Amino acid sequence: MVQRIDPDSNRFRQIVRGKIKQNLRKYISHGELIGKKGKDIVSIPLPQIELPRFRYGSEQKGGVGQGEGEAGTPISLEPGQGLGAGQHPGDHILEVDVTLEDLAEILGEELELPRIEPRGERMAETAKDRYTGIRRVGPESLRHFKRTFRQALKRQVISGVYDPEHPVIVPLPEDARYRSWKSRSLPEASAVIIYMMDVSGSMGHEQKEIVRIESFWIDTWLRSQYRQMDTRFIIHDAVAREVDRETFFHVRESGGTRISSAYQLSREIIESDYDPAQWNIYPFHFSDGDNWGGEDTAVCLRLLEEFFFETCNVFCYGQVKSAYGSGQFIKDLKERFPDRERLLLSEINCRDDIVRSIKSFLGKGR
Question: Domain 188-362 is of which CATH architecture?
C-alpha cells in the first residue's frame, strides 16, 4: 500500500518545493516558515485552494435582487456585526513538512549561493547516498516491487499470455527493477557560528525578530555545508554574556551599549574552544549601530584587525535600523576597512531587506 502512493507522494513534494521556491522571499521576510521546528524539519504553512461554488439557503425569499438598498450598494457587515455560531466549515491552513536539507537547497538555488569552501586541516569528504531512480540490476533489498510487477504485466500483455479473466502475474528475472542511488560528497570540516546581538534599550522587539529570522536562514545554509556545526550565542548591552538560544531571542532590551564587550567575549570563546586550524569560524554581530563612544569603537576596530580577520573565515556585521539608534558603527567600519575581504557588512532597514542581507553574508562562498 505504501508503494502504491509513492509516485503521488513524490509529485506532491515537487509541487510543494515549487511553491516554496516561488514564494521564498515572502516566507523569509515574514518568517512564516518558523512555526514549529523539530530536529530535522520545519513546518511550512501553505494556503489551501478551494474552487468557488454557489451555496443555496434553505428557503428562497423575495426572488433575485429584492429587498432594501439601491443598485450598486456593496453587501457588507457593519463593524462588530457578526453572524453568530455557524454550521459551515471555515478556511484552514495546510501544513507540510520539509527537511532542512531540502530547505537549504531551495535557498541556495533561489539566492544563487555558491558552495562554501571550508578551510582547515579536517578537509576529508564523506559520501551521502540518496535514492534517485530505477535500474535493472541491484540487491534484492532494493527491489522496487511495483515497478517489477508493472514490467512483468507489460511483458505478458505484449506476448499475449495475459488473461484478464484469471490475472496471474509471475515476474521473471529480467522483469526485476531496483532502486538506484546517487552519491553526494559532503565536507567533513567543522564550523562554529557565534551570534552576537545588541540588547540595549534601542533594540526593540521588531529588531530582534529580524535577527531571529535571518539567523535561522544563515543556520540552515551553513549546516548544509558542514558535517559538524556548533552555535554559540552572546548578548550585550554595556556588558556581554553567553546565553542559550531561547534567551538570545527572548531577552528584554535595556541598558547602554559597549560593543567591545561582545567582541572580547567572542575572542575568549574562540581561543578556548575553537582552534582556527581545525574549525571554520563565522562570527555574526547584529546591532543598531549605537556604541558607548569613540574609545570603545577604537577597541572594536583593533580586535577586528588583530584577531578576527586573522582567525575567522569572515566577520559579518548586520546593522538593523532602529528609531533610537544612530547607525554610526557601520560608518566607522566602512571608513576603517573599505576593502577588507573578510569583513561583510549589511544594512537591514526592514524585513524586506533580510533576503539581500543573507546574500551579502553568504554569497562569497567563504
Answer: 3-Layer(aba) Sandwich (3.40)
